[in-house]
Amino acid sequence: MKRSTFVYLASQSPRRRQLLEQIGVRCEMLLAAGDEDAESLEATVAGELPRAYVERVTRAKLKAAIARRASRALAEAPVLCADTTVALGRTILGKPADGADAARMLGLLAGRTHRVVTAVAVATSGSRMRLATSVSHVRFAPLSRARIERYVAAGEPFGKAGAYAIQGAAAAWIERIEGSYTGIMGLPLHETAALLDWAGVDLRS
User: In the structure, what pLDDT confidence band is assigned to residue 104 with cuts at 50, 70 and 90?
Assistant: First the structure.
């Protein structure tokens, strides 16, 4: 199989692009067009467990990206998608709808251990697909209402599962983690590198 020198990244997250660059993977963006309802792919299903949810969403995103690659007659190269959610027990904490929702989520996480579940999926240039999932545990210190409100007011929670970013100011709240730091950021590099190698992408690491 001919090795690829780059991968299509079907994600708007600048963190995922930076993480790929960290392991020497060149990527080109493969984003949804204005007429695609990409947000609907992240809709939850009643009773669905967090891991099943994030894996289903990631597979759906990858299938949509494969169709996008074909419709745009792009050069052949593998496609990568990922999705992250935060979970407390069976409860899925996705991206907050507004400031009140962000404060509610952070109040739930304060003083407790939660899971960060990230699924990453890759399709080869021939559209064979493979998926891997990373589950990490994060312990938050107790947080005062005032501290949560300052964080929300700064705008960092928006667009992030669980209403926080481990690489941002919320890092000061984390007493310990167990698992993949890059998985908590949104792209577990160990699993990602293995998938990209399987898909025939050249890696520096």
Answer: very high
C-alpha to C-alpha distance for 23 and 10, rounded to whole angstroms = 18
SS3 198: helix
pLDDT in tens, 46-78: 889 999 999 999 999 999 999 999 888 888 899
For 74, the 3-state DSSP assignment is coil
Task: Count the neighbouring beta carbons within 10 Å of the beta carbon of residue 126.
Answer: 10
> What does pTM read for this prediction?
0.92
Alpha-carbon distance of 66 to 61, in angstroms, equals 9
- Give residue 37's pLDDT: 66
| Other CB atoms within 10 A of residue 29 CB | 10
- Specify whether the backbone of 108 is left (phi greater than 0), alpha (psi in -120 to 50) or beta: alpha
Instruction: Give me the active site residues, please.
Output: 83
- How far apart CA 22 and CA 170 sit, in angstroms, is 22
CB atoms within 10 A of CB 20: 24
